Amino acid sequence: MPRTELTEEEKLNIKKKNLLFKRFVEPGRLALIEYGPYAGKLCFIIDIVTLTRVIVDGAFITGSDGDLCRYLKLEKHNKGSWISPPRFWIDHFIVYPIVPRMVIPLKRLKLLKERIKISKNCKSGFLRKTIKSTNVLDTFNKSNLGKKMLIKKKRDLATDYERFQIFYAKRELKKKMNILQNKKVSEGKKENKGDKKKAKKVKKVKKIASKK
């Protein structure tokens, strides 16, 4: 069979697959803020300002109680009744506090694997719809980092009595583990003693047989 030459597009695709670094700074990239007043919160990169700064947005999907209430106060009806927040907000605002649209240095961000397809400098409404349709936050929650963040959040929200329950349960579990470990060690020592006695008896029998 004659060898077919690869096109330029196919060569570029092969090069991209072989790249070691795959988490690029680009619009739609999910990032974790590691420093500053919004440390430990998730956001999406929307646009690149310079080589060291980017625009990020939380799209009102993730937010704390106070931030969500402040946002809802702005959108009251004329009669003064509250607008009920969408179900999608309620599912996620407890876990990830709100991040407003702002410029942030790249040094403060940790780029994550997840990414959504959006245009540069898109509006927060469009960003919210794309996040809802792609279920990016659900995939992040299934990752190791997402699970760790959820556990940390639960521990932070725990009361003193719940912390005491966790401490007591851990202590009881350690006691049971130590008892089982000591039993195994003692059984192993007994078996070793029995094997040594058998070996001594065999040696004595061999010596007696050799003398005869």
TrEMBL record:
GO annotation, biological process: ribosomal large subunit biogenesis; translation
Protein's UniProt keywords contain Ribonucleoprotein: yes
Keywords: Ribonucleoprotein, Ribosomal protein
Comp. bias intervals (Basic and acidic residues): 184-194
Region of interest: Disordered: 184-212
InterPro entries: Rib_uL2_dom2, Ribosomal_eL14, Ribosomal_eL14_dom, Translation_prot_SH3-like_sf
One cellular-component annotation, GO: cytosolic large ribosomal subunit
Top-level taxon of the source organism: Eukaryota
Domain Large ribosomal subunit protein eL14: 100-172
Family that this chain belongs to: Belongs to the eukaryotic ribosomal protein eL14 family.
Name used for this protein in its record: 60S ribosomal protein L14, putative
